[in-house]
Amino acid sequence: MAWDTEGTQQKILDAAVAEFAQRGPDGTTVERIARVAGVNKERVYNYFGGKQELFARVLRDELARVARDVPIDGLDAAGLGDYAGRVYDYHREHPELSRLMRWEGLAFDSEVPDEELRREHYGYKIAAVDAGQRSGEVTADFEADQLMFLVLALAGWWSAVPQVARMITGPESADEHARRRASVVRAAAKLAAA
Amino acid sequence: MAWDTEGTQQKILDAAVAEFAQRGPDGTTVERIARVAGVNKERVYNYFGGKQELFARVLRDELARVARDVPIDGLDAAGLGDYAGRVYDYHREHPELSRLMRWEGLAFDSEVPDEELRREHYGYKIAAVDAGQRSGEVTADFEADQLMFLVLALAGWWSAVPQVARMITGPESADEHARRRASVVRAAAKLAAA
DNA sequence: GTAATTCCCAACGCTAGCGTTGGAAAGGAA
DNA sequence: TTCCTTTCCAACGCTAGCGTTGGGAATTAC
């Protein structure tokens, strides 16, 4: 049979995303990633260098995805509400990224990989909010960076403490998710209203 | 020397809070807890039954603390803003609880201990918001449970993804924390405004 | 005083996971 | 063909952590 280096690496990455998101850096074992990917453990070390490096790689890939898939484009309050809704949707549809970031926040905090790159990425979002504020469409009650972060909080907290969300707003269901999403959109818009 | 059962148990609990909050259920080892507490590992098993049970116990204790220390009392928008500020402060001053809850959300999610008790606890908070809504002091834009949760989101997201907070709003400092707190208070009040 | 109970620890067996290694199989270069 | 490189894996040594046990020391009950 022919080699399939590319395929092997991809299978490892796929398995790693799932495992890391599910169990976190500590709970994840290289053995299991290899088993799920259907390859030998040694391949992981050879291609990616080890657990830490693989985690960093996985997170970088997922961040690139979200940067591509959830652009910020609205410059007024309604646009920010819409953006919050899309962030909420993304968290729902791709829980991996949110989980990875929260594992990262808990396990590492200081000294995260690619910090400079990621800061720049957020810089664009803040600039968009700032532009909205200059045009008078968005409130000047908050500094742009703070408002940006608070909007992300509204969209993200649900998945950060799902057990609390369940206890406060009731069990998850299609209906409940619709309620939550509507609340997030409305809340972000209200926060951003001039 | 005389026995000090109570003291031994307390030392274990103290060490367990610190270790679990820092490293999470997976990263924490019973060995280490025992070492930090200065007692033998066997004591942990004898008194608390094991890692899982100890984690549940630690979380229950911390939840009892916050329920005692951060009452909700305001019935109007400003009161909710004030409450959000106090929640933010609590997260700052006692990062353990927030971290424990987030570890729990990541590691277990479904089937958390004491769910009924905790749901009841949140029920009081929701009732307070609801009362504010009935009196017309708090907006009816959101259902009470949703508004309650969103307010907690504003206060809690900072510590959930500290690395993101840092990248968006700049490095932590006394000044920056004051800015953040002010944003949280203002945002919660604005959300709740009629 | 002594028997029973409780508290405590050192040490054990066991498993799981880490990262590595020696070598086999597949492909390419000459 | 022959030699070299790359991909892959089975198996290894090692460590850390889990939960337990057997026994010793302090305390209490009788």
UniProtKB/TrEMBL annotation, chains A, B:
One of its GO terms (biological process) is regulation of DNA-templated transcription. Pfam families: TetR_C_21, TetR_N. The keyword DNA-binding applies. GO terms for molecular function: DNA binding. Residues 6-66 form the HTH tetR-type domain. Keywords: DNA-binding. Gene3D superfamilies: Tetracycline Repressor, domain 2. The keyword DNA-binding applies. Residues 29-48 bind DNA. This is TetR family transcriptional regulator.
